[in-house]
Write a structure and sequence with these properties.
The protein is α/β, with parallel strands linked by helices. The protein folds into two domains: 2-161 and 326-378, Quinone Oxidoreductase, Chain A, domain 1 (Alpha-Beta Complex); 166-322, NAD(P)-binding Rossmann-like Domain (Rossmann fold, 3-Layer(aba) Sandwich), CATH 3.40.50. 26% of the residues lie in helices and 23% in strands. It has eleven helices and 17 strands. Strands 3, 4, 5, 8, 9, 16 and 17 form a seven-stranded mixed sheet that branches. It is globular.
Length: 382
């Protein structure tokens, strides 16, 4: 089969790889019909995430058709169209039983923290992902769901991570009616978090970024008030000024490990790899939220030290909430929102790229060229 293959930082190829096979009776083999490149894939591409091994196939956002099932699989059969959450989980361990499928204890030998994720580093289990023609799906009776007949494929693929994660970010903010919600980052997660904040009762939604085309999308898609941090000497001071000098009630970090906005932090984290991620966005969140407020962290960070202002968070009495999104837990409500027209995930898609040209897709997305917000990957594009 043809698949995207990691060859080192900033180096990917499309190569022939062996077809995945049934390794356990609960496995399924899925023929990928549509995948996506996620902002957290860029962290892998840039060499930010430890133990990302040469030969890995990325891709944790994908949908497809079931080609084969293991002998124990009961809920799926050949020919079913399925959407697969980015989490791999058993459904029965201590954490899965408590709705923490993203922290499953049975799918990752390194599961002191995260469970397992398709197409991520070996810190997340080392499973190959869906930027390929076929993928092995473990615990096939637990993770995948049938794609409803009424759902557009491009909406379905965005529900496997981006929309679910943005919604979860707003959910963790515990938004009360009338709250001021500040979203840092106008990428796909930030856009979906901002849109979701309205559904949860926000009275004002503010989005901060430094790319004008993404801020324009935040105004159009999420109906948010927007600010370009590059235009202010201190964006935190400005956020205080426009919130009665109190700060936002809720701040959502939708940026993560490669945040711009501070030269020293960006260089030590993104270039020298001395931190698990640039803490700029997270520190802005801590500084911009009001005392007693809530910070929700959806940005991806590596599992090592970052210079975070934890003392300030303590002294302000903040609530910090974060996790990898337990995707399937969000689906019942999100299916309703999509079916009723409150959310149309595919509205943020800007590029549709054949698998054979995926290296160009990574370059466009990474370099923020051609007003790229969300690229989809088509495995069998003619």
């Amino acid at each position: 089969m043809r698949a995207m293959v990691y060859r080192g930082p900033y180096r990917i190829r499309v190569e022939d790889k062996p077809m995945p096979v049934i390794e356990h009776p609960n496995d399924a083999i899925v023929r990928v019909t549509l995948a996506a490149i996620c902002g957290s894939d860029l962290h892998l591409f840039h060499g930010m995430i430890p133990d990302t091994r040469v030969g890995t196939t990325f891709g944790h956002e994908f949908i497809g058709v079931v080609e084969e099932v293991g002998s124990s699989v009961q809920n799926l059969q050949r020919g079913d169209r399925v959407m697969v959450p980015f989490n791999i989980f058993c459904g029965s361990c201590f954490f899965c039983a408590r709705g923490l499928q993203s922290n499953c204890h049975n799918v990752n030998a390194n599961a002191t923290a995260v469970g397992a994720i398709y197409g991520y580093s070996h810190t997340a289990g080392g499973y190959d992902g869906g930027q390929s023609e076929f993928v092995r799906v473990p615990f096939a009776d637990v993770g995948p769901s049938l794609i409803p007949d009424w759902m557009h494929d491009e909406d379905a693929v965005l529900l496997t991570d981006a929309l679910a994660t943005g919604y979860f970010g707003a959910q963790l903010g515990d938004i009360a009616e009338g709250d001021v919600v500040l979203v840092l980052g106008a990428g796909p997660i930030g856009l979906f978090a901002a849109k979701s904040a309205w559904l949860m009762g926000a009275g004002r939604v503010i989005v901060v970024d430094h790319l004008e085309y993404r801020l324009a999308k935040a105004r159009d898609f999420a109906h948010a008030e927007t600010y370009n941090f590059a235009e202010y000497d201190d964006i935190v001071v400005h956020m205080k000024k426009i919130t009665d000098h109190l700060g936002a009630d809720v701040v959502i970090d939708a940026v993560g490990a490669e945040a711009d906005g501070g030269f020293l932090q960006h260089v030590t984290a993104s270039k020298l790899k001395m931190q698990g991620g640039s803490p700029i966005a997270l520190n802005w969140a801590i500084d911009s939220v009001r005392k007693g407020g809530t910070v929700s962290v959806m940005g991806a960070y590596g599992p090592v030290y970052s210079a975070i202002k934890f003392g300030d968070a303590v002294n302000k009495g903040l609530t910090l909430r974060m996790n990898q999104c337990p995707v399937k837990r969000q689906w019942p409500r999100l299916f309703e929102h999509v079916k009723n027209g409150y959310l149309t995930p595919r509205d943020i898609v800007t590029h549709r790229i054949p698998l054979e040209h995926i290296a160009d897709g990574y370059h466009i997305f990474s370099a923020k060229l051609d007003d790229c917000i969300k690229p989809l990957i088509i495995p069998n594009a003619s």
